[in-house]
CoA-disulfide reductase (Sulfuracidifex metallicus DSM 6482 = JCM 9184), 878 residues
Amino acid sequence: MQRVLIIGGGAAGMSAASWIRRLSPDMKVTVLESTQMVSHAPCGVPYFLEGLFDDPNLFMTYEPSFFIEKRGIDLRINTRVKELNIKDRHVTVEIKDKVESIDYDYLILATGSVPITVKNDGTERVYFVHHPAHASELRKALWSLNKIAVIGGGILGIETAEALSVKGKKVVLIHRGKYPLNRMVDEDISSFFLPKMISEIDLRLGEAVLEVRDKGRLVITDKGEYKVDGTVIAIGVRPNSDLVKGQLKLGVYDSIVTNEKMETSEKGVFAAGDVAQSFNLITKQSDWVPYAPVANKMGFVAAFNVSGIEKKFPGVVGTMITKYRETLVGKVGLTSAEATRYNFKIKEALVKHKTRARYYPGSKDIWVKLIANEKDSRILGVEIVGQEEVLGRLDVLAEAIMKGATVEDLFFMENAYLPAVARVWDPLVLAARKIYAGD
Amino acid sequence: MQRVLIIGGGAAGMSAASWIRRLSPDMKVTVLESTQMVSHAPCGVPYFLEGLFDDPNLFMTYEPSFFIEKRGIDLRINTRVKELNIKDRHVTVEIKDKVESIDYDYLILATGSVPITVKNDGTERVYFVHHPAHASELRKALWSLNKIAVIGGGILGIETAEALSVKGKKVVLIHRGKYPLNRMVDEDISSFFLPKMISEIDLRLGEAVLEVRDKGRLVITDKGEYKVDGTVIAIGVRPNSDLVKGQLKLGVYDSIVTNEKMETSEKGVFAAGDVAQSFNLITKQSDWVPYAPVANKMGFVAAFNVSGIEKKFPGVVGTMITKYRETLVGKVGLTSAEATRYNFKIKEALVKHKTRARYYPGSKDIWVKLIANEKDSRILGVEIVGQEEVLGRLDVLAEAIMKGATVEDLFFMENAYLPAVARVWDPLVLAARKIYAGD
């Protein structure tokens, strides 16, 4: 019987495990997960902090018993990998105080990502919003504080700041960039969500944190000091690839390099999810996209290839979405700033529009910025800010960009139109028209 | 100076007129509109009947004075065409009691559509929900009645029945089809909106109206008779092409045949909007799609070609959307029934899913039915029923089908994911996966 070992029980790992069991009932599938949670969703942690739900089991799509009993997976929770020897196809694990050895025929690395930190003097009141397994203790700790510094104005920082602000905390958000979400959207787009944030959060922009001292109660930046009751560090994550350093080829941010089949530089060894590198379909360069939809699909692809059925992961276009209060902010592909950095000569259009017919109650503002390649009018990216129907419109571009669509293709999209949820001229179509026809 | 004559001041006509003025400031553009309204939106009439707004000027994107003063268009409202002689490039119009002759160099026919009727004995209490110009008198009449028969269970019939039911009227909806919207979605999908309709409207399905008698107060069907206070006939529309019969080549339902430039069988004569035939990109056959987004884009294309800049209208995929109360129902492309009728061998998947993460409050049901070509996995159609983010997901498929996407392309779409508005596995991606991977 062939033995598949999967390290990491998150989205990619459990997706892969379930598919292998289904495709290859004869294979033995072992999953090693260092926490007590599997198929978990870190993206839910801010909503838990906000108090929108209380049962931490809801972080899991399925509980461990489901995978063990219903899917026949040899799932071992609370099991940490001590040593991995890829050449010998061998791993040493630690369960509580016991050490055990496991051999395997196929290996899937799905170890996810870990938070990046800043210099600090201890973990007592220094917090990370990352793994759902620690969400309950994190919430208990943060809810007991009054004034909290959040370091980082990216997706996680914004969502954490929002959650704590809604819970009545005084939040100081310290961000190195010129405006929040600056690695996600262009500055012009930021003006459509920034005023609301400024009115509710003490935003410190263009300010770099040098050190957190006094056990999380003093944040020292290049512009000043902040006395707070505790500090959340949310400046981003990096691939959790330490285990394989020196054993496998690493790429962008030390993510694991794979081919389209998710196979690493070592035959029979696959990587999927946040720990794996991906290929950007727009820039045609290596990229790293640590989000759950990509992770799940990478796990799916790895499972098929382990099972001997060739499937290829086509690559990424870089889809992101977050929200602040009722306003959703998302992007697909490249921002103008990114496109310029990648040496594209671009054409762009910014459209402000409404989400419903002018006579239909409840219409909301929506902004669409579309970026296209000057040479061939191929769409390079879109940024959208609005309160309704943002998600689907982003997905339109995710699919369009993947299929190499031009602004002409988007203009002629036969968009759905119902006065209660749209205008005849959809903002996507208007943005495409601006580039296609000059207005 | 070259003279462009446009007959019809709806979406297609005014879109064409505005673009020609912009592209060819030297051309004289005359628009003849038989009512007092231009750039009007018939799709808003049901919401006006429901009482969601009261100002009939809101039906117009811009009022006539805007087009005349700001855009320099020779717009003539309340002007009916008496006779059109295409060979001689000549039209005779009637304004109040005056008759006038107009010659032109280019002609754009944008005469829209007209309601289909059933046998009836007079117009006194027999109503049509069609032109916004008559919406005020229609509303006054219908609001004064108590029990109203609505004939037709398509989009317009459903929207009218909903509006009148919300206004407290007793509505009998008589529909020849087996279930409402049967020309839009498959029967399995109808079960997700039908129960709500049945609980609020007296639905008579599979029943054909033979005649409306007693000045709209008696509806006689093949199964019985209904005594009501008045009758709304909403069984559909047909191209308003009577004016050109015998002069231009007509196609599907007597819509005007054009090439990709929207030029008819007569050089210099264009057609756009509901009166024009279109080409279906899936069936590769002629089709007829009488909806505003298509009309606007056809008008745009006609304008460019009249101005000597070649643009081509690529064709349609058949996008439709409507709602009943809070439930949106939409489709793009072919239903299974249609696909089978066009001799496609199909694979299909039906997914019931939720719109938000399991831990996020306010999640709604959503159903997606995906239809693909068995041979090459090309997507042929999608049907979606749900309460949020239906529009954008339809648009994903409108663009995907237009670009010839397969279920594999849809599965690997890098969909946006935020727990507040989506699940990691988007219902579109799940439906694609069911066909692509068997589950």
The mean pLDDT of chain A is 96. The first helix of chain A runs from residue 11 to 23. The domain at 117-233 of chain A is CATH 3.50.50.60 (FAD/NAD(P)-binding domain). Residues 5 and 107 of chain A are 5 Å apart (CA to CA).
